[in-house]
């Protein structure tokens, strides 16, 4: 049994866009609110926020004109309360739903573009969700590298990808023998070719296709984090955005915007057990849909947990990213 305590700020508010912020073990909410408060006023008026919280955080310091609810959920392990959070997300009376995990950092400029282009989800129903290009996201890592990184850094990262033994790391971790075929694009390849890689991933029989060399490589994830923290102004600046519907077989990006009615259809078709990741991707596959990737819409995911490095190293890396970006934004106030 999962219990939830709900505290409303500014009362009940029917918004066009409801953002569900999923907190579980990190407290980066102050950075999230910093960028929310920098969204254009006319776009902020469309929003409401549901903070779905596992930790006993004191958020009395929050200052924003966006109506929000604090929803405290019992259950320490993710599977103890994640499904309850997903159900609560789909209960909101809104036209669009944004799922936003606690370890994503995204500028107000990307928020503005996503909000201002939300109607494409109705105008082109073949797009199941809009998503930024996340530095270590699946499949957006390579898009992020193209949009943000120098050729030298791109070459370094691509060499890291082709050196990855996908059978040993991903295959054994998830107990999916089929992943060994992905070594055709890593250990057996001379160069990293994302297009060829994703075509092979799309042919896998496994339903879990959120697999990319970056997801199991701590050093590659650390490098992509360092590239952001060493170039924070460039990461946060306004860019020339566009929506790219290049086919990709799977999305595991930790944030996206979708029509709320479509999100509910996804849960009806494939119950969240407890996560929405596989149901979303099965729905896309069955309906022949695509994702809308916001090119130059940069976002940062601090770290995937599926790496062999120790917990303390992972925690220090994530906290250093948070501290670096927070220090920068405070210096600009």
Can you describe what's shown?
There is one protein chain. With 333 residues, this protein is α/β, with parallel strands linked by helices. Helices cover 41% and strands 19% of the residues. It has helices at 29-37, 41-44, 78-90, 108-116, 120-123, 141-148, 151-162, 167-174, 194-202, 218-229, 232-236, 260-269, 277-287, 311-331; strands at 4-9, 17-23, 47-53, 68-73, 96-101, 104-106, 127-134, 242-244, 255-259, 290-301. Strands 1-4-3-2-5-9 form a six-stranded mixed beta sheet. Helix 10 (218-229) packs parallel to helix 14 (311-331). The mean pLDDT is 92.
Q: What is the CA–CA distance across the termini?
A: 44 Å
Report the order of strands and helices: EEHHEEHEEHHEHHHHHHEEHHEH
* Alpha-carbon Rg, integer: 19 Å
If strands are numbered along the chain, what order do they take across the biggest sheet? 1-4-3-2-5-9
Determine the strand fraction and express it as a percent band.
15-25%
Query: Low-confidence parts, pLDDT < 50 over ≥5 residues?
Result: none
In DSSP terms (H or I, runs of 4 or more residues), the helix count works out at 14
- Structural class call reads alpha/beta
Largest sheet: 6 strands, mixed
Shape assignment: globular
**Helical content (DSSP H or I, runs of 4+):** 40-55%
Provide the residue-averaged pLDDT.
92
Strand segment tally = 10
Compose a concise summary of this entry.
The chain is α/β, with parallel strands linked by helices. The chain is 41% helix and 19% strand. α10 (218-229) packs parallel to α14 (311-331).
Keywords:
333 residues; six-stranded mixed β-sheet; globular; alpha/beta; four-stranded mixed β-sheet
